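Board notes, transcribed. Complex of a protein with adenosine-5'-diphosphate.
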Amino acid sequence: MLRKFASYYKPHKKLFILDMVCAFFMALIDLVFPMVTRELTNDIIPNGKMRELYIITGTLILLFILRALFNYIVDYWGHVVGARMEANMRKDLFSHLQTLPFSYFDKVRTGHIMSRIVNDLREISELAHHGPEDLFLSVIMLIGSFILMFTINVPLTLIVFIFVPLMLFFALKKRKKMNEAFREVKRKIANVNAQVEDSISGIRVSKSFTNEEYEMYKFELGNREFKDSREYAFKSMAEFFTGMNFLINMLNLVVVSVGGIFIYNGTMNIPDLLAFLLFINFFMQPIRRLTQFTQQFQSGMTGFERFLQILEVKPDIIDSNDAMELDNVKGDIKFEDVTFSYDEEETVLSGMNLDITNGKTLALVGPSGGGKSTLCNLIPRFYEVDKGSITIDGIDIKDIKVKSLREHIGFVQQDVFLFTGTIEENILYGRSDATHEEVIKAAKSANIHDFIISLPNGYKTYIGEKGVRLSGGQKQRISIARVFLKNPPILILDEATSALDNETEIKIQKALEELSKGRTTIVIAHRLSTIKNADKIVVLTDKGIEEVGTHEDLIDNKGLYSKLYKSQFKGYIPDEVA
Ligand code: ADP
């Protein structure tokens, strides 16, 4: 895993090395300062060597300017490396997600994926930038200081040496507590966010049931937990910093007292003590960096592991080597002995045979859960059949490039999804290289053009998050315009079950009739007019295909369809009745 992690440094190798080199010189300059101070106070100042004093002061000024430069590079370019690595990882993750099959998204919650893309990658980026630098700097600083201190005074160095592990132990323990506390804060704020999102999305429901107080109660519970977790986190943070400062003060005290005794005994002089004090006051920094590193390493690596877990999910629908492009599609579709299940528990389609002739309309009717949507989802290979085959113009869809296959199929879904952007951009989603005139033509065919131009900004009207400013019927017609623009030879329609007002319904119906002209159309039908006009009706139940035929055939048949028709047709076939 570490090797995989390191591979993300590769494109930024030069910057990373620059970062490390600068960090190294920063540490070196820091180490030089106490030694120079010692020299100044020991020899140069008491002996009035003014020329040396000027030279040393001048050199120190130069060194500090250099240090500032290195510091800037480390802080700026170091973070840039982290940000670039994070961007690369995010790109890899996002492009991989685009290849994953529907079955993956059925199982994973959007929130989880979001947290991978946002939170985990942030932690990884923190580790990527600070990790090597923190480790490198603190090790150089600690080892360097000890070596130099040893050259000054061995017994006093040994005393300091005992103190440092003590401080490290304390720091690690408290830091762990502090990190856990802050992680809890993150969880709690995520709960509060989820609660707010849920409440706002469901505001119509809670208002209509006058459950505002209950919503407040749920929110307040989460809000209080969040506040409590923060208070606890601040407490552990205060403990960490207070403790560390106290220990540093104690170390100072020990060094001054023991050093004082040594001076009294004549085994040490004042400049040596001064150098010692300067060294130990550096310690806070490497110790803080080391503890920070352990924490960043832990959370960064956990994040990286989760990141890899997604990258390792295989896209299960991949083009075979000799997959072909579809060309001049007529649109004959054939299901041969098709068996499919989402999981082991339940077979949804079993040994199904079905023929759809090009240019004709097939209506799927039947009770909810009968497998109508499933059947439709198999044609563009949103899911893979377990057994049997589906062919288009005699070619097995498995032998067709997925992109080419899907380019020839238009899907009009019940739940229309519009992206944030303008109306035109949303229609262009059907075919991005279309001209403005083509967009207008598609909108006219979808019966939505007049509405669009009645808006102040026309086609440039911005649709807010999830297209909230449009009615269901308008959204549906925009989605139909998309498919007009795409102009596929095969069409799959999932008719809206929810009742629309008469005028809207007529507009949509007309648009759909226009759309299906000359295309092979499979429609999950709920409306009598659609069903009556279909060339073939398939009655699908959880036992498989019950009946096939035209409206007249099926009425004569006196089976399930005729029962349905007689019992409740007033324009709809409600799912539940059959
Ligand atoms: P219909 O469109 O006729 O209402 P569906 O094709 O939606 O029927 O559902 C057929 C069966 O498959 C149902 O038992 C349903 O619970 C199941 N099912 C549908 N979608 C999924 C899915 N994504 N994962 C698992 N099971 C599913």
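The chain has three domains: 2-311, 320-408+490-500+520-578, 415-487. Residues 268 and 552 are 112 Å apart (CA to CA).
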